[in-house]
Write a structure and sequence with these properties.
41 strands, mainly beta, membrane, twelve-stranded antiparallel sheet, cell outer membrane, LPS-assembly protein LptD, single chain, lipopolysaccharide transport protein A fold, 735 residues, signal
């Protein structure tokens, strides 16, 4: 046999196998196992490896035969066969005897016989089996490939992504699709089934004349997503059938018709698009449902109910960008009744911001939609505009950092008071570290606020209104924070104890409590803010006068155990906190004591305990405990929260006491099974249930199935306590 004939044999067979099998039948480009190279001996291309026990050539007939443990490797494919025959005159090639094509990703194609015709443009295979890297398989009685059409046709085929034992013909997958005919369109990267049966554990459960889904090379494609079936106290039996449509690589949409037995049809939708300079995600829902009064009794007729939201960002330049998060619902209870969200307030936020090195400026518009029964639309504020600016010059006077800040706010209410505020501030700060490790942080600042209030007689909450309609205040402050972290190292651990003292000097203002509090209503003293210079979260609530804050932090780091303990308290030297600070932990000369304890052991125990104690009685005013025990296989989380402000006047929603316990648990067993559950109990005025849930799920390489029971005890207008049951099924590659 001439070198040309040998080369023709190898190149033709390998090219044919690559085209006819690897590309035609579900495979991505890949490379296979090693073979003994004899390219130099045979005078072949260096990229071809070939070995066989024997090679024969018949010059008269043009037949070339490679016999015995034939191994071919070229351009990423490794072909194993007992024998390969090729005829130069007809262009036909046949691979025989446990033919196996190994691919780069670890997948392989197995068949007893492979025939290639028409100069390797088409191929025919019997009893073919394609084993993918994830264990999924495609098997067929026979298959053919047409290179011109880039189309593979399989007859009497079976597809399943479930792992089965390839050597055990009786091993049934969890689910599979059997079809009279399966066509794989390489260009569309899609599988088309004709007369297909869906089987679970070998039992046919669904027949369809046609079915299609993307092949494994597709990351995202149009089609149905997993269905959801559940029962709901308000909606009855609920069936959701989401359909996902891909417009292009940068945009897609999901539409979900939801059928309910009690409220009819609900349609939800989500649209996503990525632009060269930003992205947009918008979703919403719509339905026409029976009108109901506040007692959940039908009042006749139907009404529109729905919601819409949108979020995203756009970069206008390297300096400027816009971000937005917009939300709207047709009424207070819609989102909770239809189980879309538990939110009690919807926030609409648009921000236009610019970045200049370390400096920053932004203009925002903020609007809120209150969904609680006590919320009054006319008294709900919206901000237009809210401007923030911060300038940090490169100049470092006395080695410190200078900050110049500004803020402007116009707060409007349709039927209540309006607030306008302008703030200007400047500060200088520097850190000193001594040779002994003592750290001193020095800060000097000055700030002025100008207020104007319209319709002060119509407040949304009298507890925060103050008594000044128009006023200006100027505050100056000098503070120094001393800390001395002392570290002791052992062989396998270390201890750190850090005493902290912060001294703040500021004048006392006579009218400190005359200003309205719009942006710091939920403030209270905690372990997180006790050493902050501005402990209230906003601008309206301001601590005047001088104070001393003191405490310590201890930390232990060992091989298995890490622990941190922190305690702190503040003493007011001068000034009066007044009524606006009542219940915050700062309503006396000595503040409440705040602290935290955190303990972790390896990766299966974590304790986080944060608390606030009354400075005189040591009564617990705030107690927040979270304990997690376990790992990914099994875990229990326990939580307890108590807030006792000890208030007698103006006990409104933001200042109300509450107490609750929480518990969740999860347990994974038999590798694929998972149990989970949780409970929330309200202890504020008794032992009232809030929510209970328990669920079980199964997940393996080809199927996800879950069942959850949920019991809720919330009652709010047309929302009543009830039980929900959710069933979810997902088949890999099908949805």
């Amino acid at each position: 046999m001439t070198k040309t004939a040998k080369k023709t044999l190898l190149s033709s067979v390998v090219d044919g196998c690559a085209a006819a099998i690897a590309v035609g039948i579900f495979c991505a480009p890949s490379v296979g196992a090693q073979a003994v190279s004899s390219a130099e001996v045979l005078g072949l291309q260096s990229s071809v490896d070939f070995s066989a026990d024997k090679i024969t050539y018949n010059a008269e007939t043009g037949d070339v035969r490679a016999l015995g443990q034939v191994v071919l490797k070229r351009d990423g494919f490794t072909l194993l066969a007992g024998e390969i025959r090729y005829n130069e005159q007809t262009g036909k090639a046949v691979a025989l005897g446990a033919v196996e094509l190994q691919l780069k990703d670890g997948s392989r194609i197995v068949a007893p016989r492979l025939e290639m015709n028409d100069n390797l443009k088409s191929a025919f295979v019997q009893d073919i089996r394609f084993v993918m890297t994830d264990g999924g398989q495609v098997a067929a009685a026979e298959g053919s490939y047409d290179q011109d059409k880039a189309e593979t046709v399989l007859k009497r085929a079976v597809y399943s992504p479930c792992k089965v034992c390839i050597d055990d013909p009786d091993d049934e997958p969890v689910w599979q699709i059997k079809a009279v005919k399966v066509t794989h369109d390489k260009n569309k990267r899609r599988l088309y089934y004709k007369d297909a049966f869906l089987e679970f554990l070998g039992v046919p459960v669904l027949w369809t004349p046609t079915l299609s889904h993307p092949d494994p090379t597709v990351d995202r494609a149009s089609g149905f997503l997993p269905f959801e079936i559940k029962t709901n106290k308000h909606l009855g039996l609920v069936l959701g059938a989401p359909y996902h449509h891909v417009f292009s690589k940068s945009k897609d949409m999901t539409v979900t018709p939801i059928l309910t037995t009690q409220e009819g049809l609900v349609v939800t939708g989500e649209y996503r698009q990525r632009f060269s300079d930003g992205q947009l995600v918008t979703d919403g829902s719509i339905t026409y449902a029976d009108k109901r009064d506040q007692n959940n009794i039908k009042s006749g007729g139907q009404e529109f109910r729905g919601n819409i939201s949108a979020e995203g960002y756009f970069n206008h330049s390297d300096t400027w960008r816009s971000t937005f998060d917009l939300n709207w619902a047709s009424d207070d209870t819609y989102l909770r009744r239809y189980d879309f969200s538990d939110a009690d307030t919807l926030v609409n936020d648009y921000k236009f911001e610019g970045f200049y090195g370390s400096s920053y400026i932004s203009a925002r518009a903020l609007a809120f939609q209150g969904l609680r029964l006590e919320d009054v639309t006319g008294l709900t504020a919206f901000a237009l505009p809210l401007i923030d600016a911060e300038f940090i010059p490169d100049y470092r006077p006395l080695g410190g950092v200078v900050r110049i800040e500004g803020n402007a706010l116009a707060l409007h209410r349709l039927d209540g008071l309006d607030t306008q505020r302008v703030t200007a501030a400047a500060s200088w700060e520097r850190r000193f570290v001594s040779s002994a490790g003592v750290v001193l942080d020095v800060n000097a600042s000055v700030r002025s606020d100008a207020y104007n209030i319209d319709d002060i007689e119509y407040p949304d909450d009298p507890a925060y209104v103050g008594n000044a309609e128009s006023d200006v205040r100027t505050m100056a402050r000098l503070s120094g924070r001393f800390s001395w972290p002392l570290v002791k190292y052992g062989e396998t651990n270390s201890h750190t104890i850090e005493p902290i003292v912060e001294v703040t000097v500021a004048p006392t203002r006579r009218n400190a409590q005359s200003f309205i509090n719009e942006d710091s209503r939920s403030f209270e003293l905690t372990d997180r803010n006790i050493f902050s210079l501005d402990r209230p979260t906003g601008y309206d609530l301001y601590e005047d006068g001088s104070r001393v804050t003191y405490g310590f932090r201890w930390q232990y780091d060992g091989e298995d155990v890490q622990t941190e303990v922190m305690l702190g308290q503040s003493w007011q030297v001068s000034g009066d906190y007044g009524a606006l600070f009542t219940g915050t932990g700062l309503d006396g000369d000595s503040s409440d004591i705040v602290g935290r304890t955190q303990v972790s052991y390896r990766d299966w125990l974590f304790l986080d305990h944060r608390y606030r104690l009354d400075d005189s009685k040591l009564a617990v005013r705030r107690n927040d405990i979270d304990l997690t025990i376990g790992n990914e296989e099994r875990s229990v989380t326990l939580g307890y929260f108590k807030l006792n402000r000890d208030l007698t006047d103006f006990v409104t929603g933001d200042r109300a006491d509450r107490e609750e316990i929480r518990a969740t648990g999860s347990y994974r067993f038999y590798k694929n099974w998972h149990l989970s559950g949780g409970v929330i109990q309200d202890l504020t005025s008794g032992f009232d249930g809030v929510e209970y849930n328990i669920g079980a799920s199964y997940k393996d390489e080809c199927i996800e199935i879950g069942l959850q029971f949920r019991e809720t005890y919330t009652r709010d207008r047309d929302i009543v306590p009830g039980t929900s049951i959710l069933f979810r099924l997902k088949l890999k590659n099908l949805g």
